[in-house]
Amino acid sequence: MNIWKFVSGMSVLAMSSLPAFAETPQQLLAGYVAEAAQATPGFSPSAERGRQFYLQRHAVTDRQQGCFSCHTDNPLAPGQHVTTSKSIEPLAPVAGSERFTRAAKSEKWFRRNCKEVIGRECSAGEKADLLHFLLAEAAR
Q: What does UniProt give as the signal peptide span (predicted)?
C-alpha cells in the first residue's frame, strides 16, 4: 500500500511541475537570437524584417504564396489553410495562448510551413525576426 502512496505522490508532483517546463515565446525568441548570432555575430531581431517576411510573396507555389495565405494579413486574426480549408488559430502568441510555448511543436511547424511556403527551412534569423514581429503585433 505504501508503494501506491509513493507512486501517487510522485505523479501529483510530476504533474504539478509541468508548467515549469513550458517555454514562453520570449524564451524561444532568445534561443533563435542566440542561434542566429552564432552565424551572424551581432544579430539583433527586427520586427520590421519579420513583418516583411510574413507578408512577402514567394514563388514556390501559387496557392501558398506566403505566411499570410493561411494566417491572413493580420496575425491576430484566425486563418484558414488554403488547401485543406482547416481553421487555424491566430498566429500571434497573444491571440492564441498555446502559440510558441513548446519548442518541438514550434520547430515542427516552422519546418513544415517554411518548406511549403519558401521552399526551404527557415533560418534562425528568419524565425527570430518573425517571432519578434508577432510579439510586437501584440503590443500594438
A: 1-22
Beta strands 79-80 and 87-88: pairing type?
A: antiparallel
Q: Which CATH number fits domain 21-139: 1.10.3720.10, 3.90.550.10, 1.10.760.10, 1.10.10.60?
A: 1.10.760.10
| Cβ-based neighbours of 48, under 8 Å, separated by 6 or more | 133
Q: How is the chain split into domains, by residue range? A: 21-139
Phi, psi (5° rounding) for residue 131? Answer: -65, -40
pTM of the model as a whole: 0.80
Instruction: Output the CA–CA distances (angstroms, integers) from residue 76 to 20, 84, 125, in the order listed.
Output: 27, 21, 22
